Amino acid sequence: MTSQLMSAPKCLLPSEGESYNLLDSTFTIKISGQETEGQWIMYEIVAPTGHEPPLHSHPWDETFYVLDGEMEVQVNQVKTLAKAGCMMFVPKNVPHTFKVCSPTAKMLVILAPASADAFYREYGEKIKDFPTLEDLKYFGDKYGIRAYF
């Protein structure tokens, strides 16, 4: 990594950073992949009650840190209630999901490598409702995502 990257601290207020929507959630980029030479990216995600992706896996590591609210998190077959202050690490290719149990949940999410951002952006642009089987096949083939039904 070159010494000029992140040579000064980066301080962002909660509402600062590039934002985009993915279905019913808002993703705000706090640290971009460009700033980490593609090693990782950090989002602040706000999701409403009931938000629950299907049980799935993908070829990138994912770390959640709950800032506000409550989520039921499942990694493999183990379920945990995660409240503000909890952190969960999900290694690549491990089945996982979560369900927002409070009115909203706010979390920091780190993905490694940062190239995973391409999936979230494309998914947010193309999918406006529940994905079809064709959608799942397309994203699975392109990004290595597997959904478990």
Strands in their spatial order, largest beta sheet: 1-2-3-10-5-8
Number of domains: 1
The SSE string, one letter per element, is EEEEEEEEEEHHE
CATH architecture: Sandwich
Strand content: 35-45%
Q: Write down how many β-strands occur, each being a DSSP E stretch of 2 or more residues.
A: 11
Helical percent range? 10-25%
Topology:
Blueprint: E1 19-22, E2 25-31, E3 41-48, E4 56-57, E5 61-68, E6 70-75, E7 78-83, E8 87-90, E9 96-100, E10 104-112, H1 117-126, H2 133-143, E11 146-147
Antiparallel strand pairs: 1-2, 2-3, 3-10, 4-11, 5-8, 5-10, 6-7, 6-9
What would you note in describing this structure?
The structure is a single chain. The protein has 149 residues and is mainly β. It has one domain: Jelly Rolls (Sandwich). The chain has two helices and eleven strands. A hairpin with a 2-residue loop joins strand 1 and strand 2 (25-31). The mean pLDDT is 91.
Key attributes of the depicted protein:
149 residues; mainly beta; six-stranded antiparallel β-sheet
Offer a concise description of the structure.
The chain has 149 residues and is mainly β. 14% of the residues lie in helices and 41% in strands.
